User: Fold this.
Amino acid sequence: MEKKPVLSIGMIFKNETRCLERCLESLRPLREAVPCELIMADTGSTDGSREIAARYADDLFDFPWVNDFSAARNAVMDRASGEWYLSIDADEWLDPDVRQLRRLFKEGRKLGAEAAVLVVRNYKGDLQDGAYTDVFIPRVLRMDTGMRFAGAIHESWPVTNQNKLEALTETILHHDGYSRLGAEIEEEKRVRNVTLLHQELEKEPDRLLTLLQYIESGQKEEDYDEVLRRAVALVEKRAKGWERCGAPILRYGVMSAQGRDYPELERWLALAEERFPDSFFTLIDAQGAAFDHSWQKGDYADCIRRGETALKAIADYNAGRGDQLTKLTSAILLAAPQQEAYLRLFMAGAHIELGHPEEALALLGQLDGAELKPHRVENFMAVLQRAHAMTAGDDGALVLRFWERIGLPQPSEDRARERREAFTKVAAGCFDPAYLQKEQRDGAPRPAYTLYEPLAGQCEVGTAAAVLAAGSVPEMAELLARVENWAALPPLALEKALLSGVCFPLAERPLNLEEMDALASGLAQDPGTLHKLLNEAAGEDYAGSWQTLSWTRALALAAVQSFGWKNGGQEGLALARTFAKVEGAFLTGCYAPEVLREGNLLVLPPMHRFGWYCAQAFNALEAGDSMGYTRLLRAGLETNPAMKPVVEYLAEHTPELEDTGASPELLALAEKVRTMLAAYPADDPAVAALKASPAYQRVAYLIEGDRG
Assistant:
């Protein structure tokens, strides 16, 4: 004779190939520990879910969907033969630790237990982000109670305080049914839920539990505001069910008032604090929303007070102290690790605003970088930098530990990389000249970048900070030799090293052209420094060193591209001459003479094409050929139109052109040519022929230069 099962496990499902097998596999430890039967109802699958279920179920049957979750679940219960019943969904999976369940099924009847609640952990987004909410839901029932599911949606057993209810606080059902499904599926579920809830409210419009469920699901609905206000009004009137549903409804009221800018926020918050002062819904969720409200108002003292209240309540909640059965009604929304981190970070920021850097550092020290999302790493570093700049204390151990922790592959190598990128992004900002100037105006005791000195050799911002603090050229050179990623090195550090006399590029660390161009572009943030470095480099004997010559070329290109040619003074002419000199040396050193013929220049990059013409133009000018100078500049412009500001500047500021280039005869000729051009459409062959004529070439810079 077959032994009667101790436990019946029941499930309804439809089109759950994404997660069904995960759920069924998670039941193995329980099925091996307790005599079980698994009963499954398919409510209309078309994606292969039924075939998966068939491999696991002891009893698999079809149940036509009738738009009523209780009807489907009760059909499963009707086929159960176990002493106990466990209800589970396909998008859930049971934690491997089933000791509490095994003990319940062994000793529960003797203890008089009639039902048990489990922790259902609802994940939001990535399962490993720490963003989840926990709720207690009755999922285990002793079959001889005779209870069945009630409610077309959010169905449950009508368990009351009269029932002996066990709380299995260490038994977790993980649930991701409302995360990572894609927008279309999530919207389908939402519409399904609110439709069923609307139907329930039509039957009982003032039932607070249904109103609470609608508030939880219907935030996108047009009538959400009206339903929320109706629910709060019923709680104020102490309508039936207010003791059970009032705290979570008021919690939603305060949170919605904060997010949607309702005028009732202060009144609803006061009501929650008056009616439910000890409820976790008030102490955590409502206080968390009030925390945000105070932050936005700039009331940082109130922000800290509310944050401290919420953090203490979260600690009690997670330690099992206080009224844990609040989870039976609704989830506490702001008790997850990420919310704790958020509170500590912004409380630290509030302390900074109030001038309390030591308190801010204490809060930051309580956070684990390995548990933070990248955007929270940015928040952390922004507060830490400000706290560091406000004090003279030693926070090196804090930044070292944080750097180490954010680099741990938790939950993945990709996440660790993203955290370190966020760290570097914020850190690099405090090396910006504008940031440094603001610090000086604010009277900061020390620059924020000094925070990173302990990280020298571990990351480029740390090396940059050490370079800025170095007292000798050899020390700076030794630090630069440890740089692995030049693109991540703040330009300020390289600028100081070069101005101090470090020979660059370093003999032991040759650079490629792309690295040189990127570094030179970074130096272009300060044109004066860049021009000084270029002049020094151009005066060196770089003919025998490809690294030195290439670096000088990078400086020259960056200088030409960043210079303010429209408003440039005489230094622009000196820059153009230096550029021509460097380009001439670089091109003749790197390219065969055959390439550097005017008809073959198209094989060169645009800037080098222009550089060749520029070098030839200054050679012509030195030979006294001002017309050749003008022609070559115009030809260079045709090969690289982006250099129009340079050519226009040279046409205005070259002294030799002022002496001979704009004589009355040339001006008259230019006007005559301009009149002839105006007589023809731009695409007329006569225009092309005229532009190719010697006469046009003599006055082209006058006609096309927009000399104003």
Q: What stands out?
A: The first helix runs from residue 20 to 26. The chain is about 55% helix and 10% strand. The mean pLDDT is 89.
